[in-house]
Design goal:
The protein has about 600 residues and is mostly helical. The protein is about 65% helix and about 0% strand. A three-stranded antiparallel β-sheet has the order 1-2-3, with no helix packed on it. It holds the Pfam family SSF.
């Protein structure tokens, strides 16, 4: 391995510039192609004409992409392969989203997912849900803009804030020009770049290490191969349970009720295409995560005798993979540029998803209900909102520099708001007797509890024994012979000296960050149901529009259940028919698609 300084070559910059140029060209293409039929639905929802494959690509790379590329290999390098249990979380999340949330939202022909909250509860709850979404988006996008810029600056000397400004500028340009259709197709292109980047690292890393069996052996000797970790203590950072259920709930919030993702379902030509998109998306998520895990194993195997973090070659774990790329591809001009294009593609796809979603929410939730303007006016306002939100996201990027490891920071931020939001929608969809009072108190209680837990965990961090950070070796570092990095217990006391730590038996804040979404979700559900029952929600349940409720036990998978049980589970709500938006109802056995049409509700 070579620890000399590394820089970009001209070929690397050309490859990187080519990716940016193609992304911009897609936006220009769609503004020209659709110039004669540009209206607000075409601009924000792609004319509701998209097919499953491009939408699936967009879903896969639209939310965790840049974080996945940088954060997953760093996670494997520091903590081992127990992180692989997230894959099981993707699977059950996909089934729930496809069978409950997509049919409910799609068949109502919504433009904004927050319309549901007003129809189910009231205008105040819709505004609160929208504000929670904006809070989550700005914090999240700040991190996503910062992450790839950090990768660029750390390995090439490229100006950090120059990279941040260029990320925002490119996103704003093609998103504002082409609308959602351009964003989706650009995401598809960027997904291909990400796959090529990951696969290139795996192939070259395997060649350098003499085969994958050598990589696996080095990781086994370093304690990085660990799957069977079934501890039930919620204070342990990662276990099979916290990753399976924590990740599942976090992604359920992301893919089930987040405007950025729901907007893509709503752009599909049918509910069948929308469901197909989410299942294809899960395959993409699994593939990208497996590739990220593999890159993490290669990174550890390559540096297993000289840890760049401990020796000072890199400052943060998220810089490890970029450093590896410049190391193993130093004699291959253009390949480091391909990797940076891969990271940058992840950031572009995520930022464009967020700013188009925030533009849609602003127009659909705040402006259209208030002003009777033409579609052309709203389309131009949407473009202006994309530019405005893109600029505003740059300001929040400053916050990201103090949030530590990228992957953990993002999951923590998403969990704080994602859990209460998921709970708010689930109250409305699954519980007919939930009312607006319960929704209000439930959402606020869930948010307060999640923030309380997060702040407490920052002030009173969990003891080192729950962090499970693995040891490193410095034996082959330049100027060091036969040295081994101390165990994690010996490396972390500086944290304990500067922050107060409560005794383990009373440390109520030592929750795994993976459980924040679950924590906020169940607080919202519990308080929401209690407040609804105390304010006569059960009495008013029969006045709820059946289209807004998902009678869970009417799904075909429960066909063996007795009818009297199914009837009682509906709480007096008549069997629902889904609304297809053209004045007629499309009879839907909640997941089982039928073609016969019935009378309009």
């Amino acid at each position: 391995m070579d620890f000399s300084p590394k820089t970009f070559s001209l070929a690397d910059y050309l490859v990187f510039a080519l990716m940016l140029s193609v992304s911009t060209a897609i936006g220009i293409f769609y503004v020209i192609k659709d110039r004669k039929k540009q209206n607000i639905e075409e601009y924000l929802l792609g004319g509701r004409s998209m097919s499953a494959c491009p939408v699936a690509f967009s879903l896969s790379v639209g939310f965790m992409s840049a974080v996945l590329i940088l954060g997953t290999p760093a996670e494997i390098y520091k903590y081992g392969t127990v992180f692989s249990w997230t894959l099981l979380g993707y699977v059950w999340m996909t089934i729930v989203v496809a069978e409950i949330y997509i049919p409910t939202f799609y068949n109502m022909k919504l433009s904004s997912v927050y319309e549901y909250l007003e129809k189910r509860f009231n205008r105040l709850i819709r505004i609160e849900g929208t504000l929670l979404y904006f809070m989550q988006s700005f914090l999240y996008i700040g991190i996503v803009i910062y992450a790839p810029a950090l990768a660029l600056s750390s390995v090439t000397g490229f100006n950090l804030w120059g990279a941040i400004m260029s990320t925002a500028a490119i996103c704003i340009l093609y998103s504002a020009l082409g609308g959602l259709k351009a964003v989706i197709w650009t995401d598809a292109f960027q997904a291909i770049i990400m796959l090529i980047g990951f696969i290139s690292i795996i192939i070259r890393g395997s060649v350098v290490m003499g085969g994958f069996e050598n990589i696996w052996r080095a990781c086994e000797e370093g304690g990085r191969i660990e799957f069977w970790k079934f501890d039930v203590d919620p204070r342990i950072r990662h276990t099979a349970w916290s990753l399976t259920f924590g990740t599942g709930f976090q992604f359920l919030s992301t893919y089930g009720v987040n405007q950025g993702q729901v907007q893509r379902y709503l752009s599909c030509k049918s509910v069948y295409e929308a469901k197909k998109a989410i299942f294809l998306n899960s395959i993409g998520l699994v593939l990208l995560t497996v590739l990220g895990i593999t890159c993490g194993l290669i990174t550890y195997a390559y540096y297993h005798n000289c840890d760049p973090l401990s020796y000072g070659f890199v400052e943060k774990p998220d810089q490890l993979l970029p450093y590896l790329v410049l190391d193993i591809f130093q004699n291959y001009p253009g390949m480091p540029g391909l990797f940076i294009a891969c990271v940058y593609s992840g950031s572009l796809s995520t930022v464009s998803t967020a700013i188009t979603a925030m533009s849609s929410v602003t127009v659909q939730d705040f402006l259209k209900p208030t002003f009777d303007w033409s579609d052309e006016t709203f389309t131009w306002i949407s473009r202006g909102m994309i530019i405005f939100y893109g600029g505003l996201c740059i300001l929040f990027a400053y916050l990201a520099s103090s949030l530590g490891q990228v992957l953990q920071a993002v999951i923590s931020v998403l969990g704080l708001v994602g859990g209460p939001l998921l709970g708010l929608y689930t109250l409305g969809i699954l519980f007919p007797f939930a009312n607006s009072v319960g929704a209000f108190f439930g959402a606020n209680a869930g948010l307060a509890a999640a923030i309380w837990l997060f702040i407490g965990s920052q002030n009173y961090p969990p003891p080192p024994k729950f962090l499970d950070q693995l040891s490193y070796s410095l034996a082959k570092c330049p100027g060091i012979e036969n040295a081994t990095e101390p165990s994690p217990i010996a490396m972390i006391p500086t944290l304990e000296k500067t922050t107060p730590v409560m005794p383990p038996e009373v440390n109520m804040y030592a929750f795994s960050y993976q459980l924040y979404t679950m924590f906020g979700f169940f607080w919202t559900i519990g308080i929401g149901l209690l407040a609804s029952l105390l304010t006569c929600g059960w009495r008013d349940r029969k006045t709820v529009d059946p289209r807004l409720i998902y009678p869970f036990f009417d799904h075909w998978i429960f066909k063996c259940f007795p009818e009297y049980f199914k009837k009682s589970s509906r709480c007096g709500i008549k069997r629902q028919e889904s609304y297809n938006g053209d004045g007629e109802g499309n009879k839907l056995m909640l997941g089982k698609r039928e073609t016969t049409k019935s009378q309009s509700l």
